[in-house]
Amino acid sequence: MAKHVIAVLNQKGGVGKTTTVINLAVYLKKLNKSVLVVDIDPQGNATSGLGVNKQLITASTKELMLGAAPIERIVLQTEAGVHLIPTSQELASLEVELVSSEGREFNLRRALERSNYDYIIIDCPPSLSLLTVNALAAADSILIPVQAEYYALEGLSQLLEVVQLVKSGLNPDLELLGVLLTMFDRRNTLAEQVKTEVENHFKGKVFTTIIPRNVRLAEAPSYGQSIHTYDKRSKGAKAYHSLAKEVHKRASGK
Ligand SMILES: Nc1ncnc2c1ncn2[C@@H]1O[C@H](COP(=O)(O)OP(=O)(O)OP(=O)(O)O)[C@@H](O)[C@H]1O
Ligand SMILES: [Mg+2]
User: Which of 39, 197, 200, 247 is deepest in the core (most CB within 10 A)?
Assistant: First the structure.
């Protein structure tokens, strides 16, 4: 298959972006796809969640985006089998350095151009910043996790506006891969209402797979493990396995 770059984004914090990046990546790998995760969030949660000690990182997303080191020198092999471009704290200053560089929206796209993976999954920070714009310029498609709660749709129109701007200028081929409901609690009637609302708003674009609220998903990152390693029988594991199949189907147009 042709390489497919997915940016996982929502400028709202704590909606399940990183959890989705880690576990989607691991289950795509289980489908025998080669997968690279790119952590562009200065918080570095995808990096630590994949079991990498941030203290020991010598080259990261920063060097990648500044073209200071070739991708082969930065990529780490994680225990889960997916490759990772890690983040260290220095990424926070990258944004400032980028602002003055020419073609600053395309640094990530340029850096990833020659790499050969079936899937590249980008974990975005909770902001609509230059880093996020770099992800949108580099991506074939976007996946938006939405937490099934009262203010779920708030901020999404602003997000879609930015996506539209990127489409009309930097990246005309950018597509919405899908919207993913996360932390869903079936016992909660409000969650059902939010689901209906999101489905009406994003007709045909909401993934059939819904990620349930599952404490095992919240526990796994503190052990640096994916949900597959931590508890492959959990509801969270089954949901992300099913999401990977659905994502692959959509991304490969089958
Ligand atoms: N389905 C779930 N069930 C229970 N807890 C979850 C689930 N998904 C994520 N969490 C927990 O919720 C918190 C936020 O999730 P996560 O870090 O994936 O969100 P995020 O959107 O990446 O956050 P940020 O915007 O800070 O980067 C984390 O503590 C995570 O472990
Ligand atoms: Mg995150």
Answer: 39
